[in-house]
Amino acid sequence: MPELLRSPINTAPLAALSMSETRRRRGLLVFSAISDGTQS
Questions:
Q1: Model confidence at 12, in pLDDT bands (50, 70, 90)?
Q2: Cβ contacts of residue 14 below 8 Å, gap of 6+?
Q3: Buried b (16+ CB within 10 A) or exposed e, 6-31
């Protein structure tokens, strides 16, 4: 892991990937919450 942190070439895509993954999961959570609210 320290090797990844030391290399900006690896860290940049890694950070972007985790950021988009977090955003996607949050979007799915919000979407499922909305669909649950409309169903009940």
A1: confident
A2: 4
A3: eeeeeeeeeeeeeeeeeeeeeeeeee
- Confirm whether pTM is higher than 0.85: no
- C-alpha span between 6 and 13 (Å, rounded): 13
Place of tokens 């900006």: 8
Listing DSSP states for the chain in one string gives -HHHHH-HHHHHHHHHHHHHHHHHHHHHHHHHHHHHHHH-
Q: Which residue has the tokens 């409309």?
A: 38
**What six digits make up the tokens of 26?**
């949050």
CA distance 16 to 38: 33
